[in-house]
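Chapter summary example: a protein plus adenosine-5'-triphosphate.
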Amino acid sequence: MGDARSAPDGVLVEAEALTRVYGEGETATVAVDGATFSVAEGEFLALIGQSGSGKSTLLNMLGLLDTPTRGTLRYRGQDVSGMDKLKRALLRNELIGFVFQFHHLLPEFTVLENVLMPALIAGSHAADVRERALETLELLGLSGLEGKNANQLSGGQKQRVAIARALLNRPAIVLADEPTGNLDTANTEAVYDLFRTINRELGTAFLIVTHDRTVAQRTDRIIEIRDGRIVGDVKNEFGRPARD
Amino acid sequence: MLPLKIALRFLRTSPVQSALIATGIAVGIATQVFVGSLITSLQASLVEQTIGSTPHVIVRAPDEAEPLKVTAAMLSVVQTDPRVEPGAVVPVRVTNALLTDGEDSATLALKGGDLGGLDAIYRLRERTVAGTVRLGKGDVVIGTTLAEKFSLAPGDSVALTLPDGSRRTLRVTAVVDLGAEAANERQAFVDADLPRSVLGWRSGEFAAIEAQILDPFDSTAVATDWRSRLRGVRVVEWQEQNADLLTALQSQASSSYMIQAFVLIAVALGIASTLAISAVQKTRQIGILKAMGMSDAQASRIFLWQAAALGLAGTAGGVALGYALLWGFSFAPVQFSIRPEPSFIALSASIGVAVSMASSIIPARRTSRVDPIEVIQGG
Ligand SMILES: Nc1ncnc2c1ncn2[C@@H]1O[C@H](COP(=O)(O)OP(=O)(O)OP(=O)(O)O)[C@@H](O)[C@H]1O
Ligand SMILES: [Mg+2]
């Protein structure tokens, strides 16, 4: 059994017969049914499926927001499926970045403060991580906006701030649930380009939930889920952009 | 420190709500400080008025008309009791006198005794309004009300008719304020010999031994003690003679505690409901913070800090407001002055903060139950 915090070689996430049942008895819904797969360090993959197929449920379990009804989940070899709430919170803070359909910025705080939040939750001092936060904002093309209130930004800018926030603790994986669901085509393009750049430059793994086949086509691997079961898991040779 | 930072930011970004609740706490604490200080001072003043011009314990003869034969042994029992204020023991003789000035007349109670002892009990020097207290032969010390009524000043002469029919002219040496209207009108002090000659008593024969004790509320125990140690005397003390007053003071104190308790409950309910509303308003933020890895305990602390900040600000404002009210009240035409007691105010303030903190338990609990998944999936 390895330590989830230690440096990796290869496998980041391993899901084994991961199952999530909502409710009990007659009304029970099996939202995710025996999902088995693994994600390598630095991998860039898409999770596709129709509405109600169980994508968000699976993502929430991978994000340690929800616990599986059955099955096991390992991060870098460490079993996390039965972990208590507090340990899950700590690990989430350290290993996982979230990007959601809605930006979920804190309206009471500035852009910089929002981006700093994951580090502050981890107990860091703002002064120590400020530099990294500004770098991250720059990486996302948000330089100069750090002092603004989160409410004063456009939709695309807000989503990019949310991405910067997800990246601040340099997570091993970013879990993105329809991250461009609320954006127009141009902004959608920009967000995926950014994901790619970060994936390449920081080695962060990405698991992106999407309805959009054209988006999925641009990832390295596509997992398809139907009625809670994984029905397809294919490498996508065409997804990888041409290298220079 | 992050929960504190977030708490303060939440408070600052809803300034009207924060100001309202802090004001609510302030009004509650101010009421507490004002009512508490008022009642305490009023009670102290009532007790002071009652015993300020009365000896705490009096040793008399069993029969009012008979003199008390004061022996050295008897005096020593009283004087050597450690509960007695040193020097505040005096054998006295009492007689009535009629003061006439043309149409007007007044009945005086002349109390004759040694000046040192009388001063220790009645604090005559301290309470002198005019003149210098002296009780030589032919001297008299009178109260302020009498002095006003008959336009008497130190140096003036007063003509008195005594119960034996004799007439004496005494010289006023001082006018004193005995702290109570009735005493200021009727009570006068003379040397011990004047009543003796009027009554025809021998030396060693007195009306009573008067004594002042260090803690007035010891009087019952002291009296019981002396009753068993002194033969053939009657011992009376101020508490049994003022039982009605003491009962009244007690019920006044309990109604004051009731008022204070209800004010605190109202304050607690106010904070609790406002914080509960705030916790509902901030559900989304709490969910997001938790998704980013904030623990339940940390998230709950946000509301604890909010309560602490509101409690501190409100209490500080309340103490200031309470002092302002007391200051304003000092101009009111009442018989007593309010002395704010720092220890009582410190107690009120800490109760204020503690109540604020306690009322954050409900919102803090609610916060623990916020599930980030629910927050994240909705807009
Ligand atoms: N909290 C819940 N309680 C009961 N059933 C739930 C709950 N959340 C999800 N479900 C059910 O689980 C199944 C999977 O839901 P999930 O949200 O994972 O789908 P999804 O693939 O993310 O859909 P969409 O593309 O619409 O977001 C659905 O049938 C849904 O009704
Ligand atoms: Mg979904």
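Key point: The longest strand of chain B covers residues 84-101.
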